[in-house]
């Protein structure tokens, strides 16, 4: 909860400055809802699922939802990554309820990416920070509600407001891990959402989903060093496939984009040449018409002068 409350602080001035823009507010609340569901499912799933498994399951995203047009090379990378996830799940601990919740979390994050792609491209740049502010505030509010409901209903027989004292609150504040909360709030939440929002102005949600396939590599690496989780041969193969799927999408995507840019440049040159030829032809026609008009004008003027001279004589 503290993590998300901390992440809202840098965005509060932008929310106040923006005022009452209904479109920005509703879009930010929607994005905050999807990412809140993702964070909540992931947090509960991690209670029973291994951190390495959870990070690899997070690579599963809803790429084809809402009728998104997905190129063939992205489908190739997604299938390779999903095969790697399946191989990973075959090793280590058996599947559990936490893995199912992590799958739901990945689906929520996938929907969030798709909606972020659409909303970021329809929102003006000067309103992006306010949009992020509404999104992060929604996440912070949802986590506060979850925290209060969990404590109240989870310990309904033990919870008593009169039992709290100032010394208990002071001890709780001193023992609270403020440094991890500040780090995850500022960098893992605020900075990452800001980078994602700005990047998805140019990168599609499907490509972003495959790029996020690198997340489990880092998550499993930290789980290896900090939590002592170890892989078998099958899990190493799965991790390699996920990494290869992500790299394949990036390489093929760059080739595809370069060829598309080259094709568009050639088309522009052809159109420019065609327009230039049309303009040159039109110029000739206009000049001919202008010359004819001048000729008619001069003839008419000459006839009038001749008629005037005849009248004077």
Automatic annotation (TrEMBL):
GO terms for cellular component: plasma membrane. Belongs to the drug/metabolite transporter (DMT) superfamily. Plant drug/metabolite exporter (P-DME) (TC 2.A.7.4) family. It comes from the Eukaryota. It comes from Canna indica. The keyword Membrane applies. The chain crosses the membrane at residues 70-88, 100-116, 128-149, 176-197, 209-225, 237-256. Keywords: Cell membrane, Membrane, Transmembrane, Transmembrane helix. It is a multi-pass membrane protein. It holds the Pfam family EamA. This is EamA domain-containing protein. It is found in: Cell membrane. Signal peptide: none annotated. Residues 164-247 form the EamA domain.
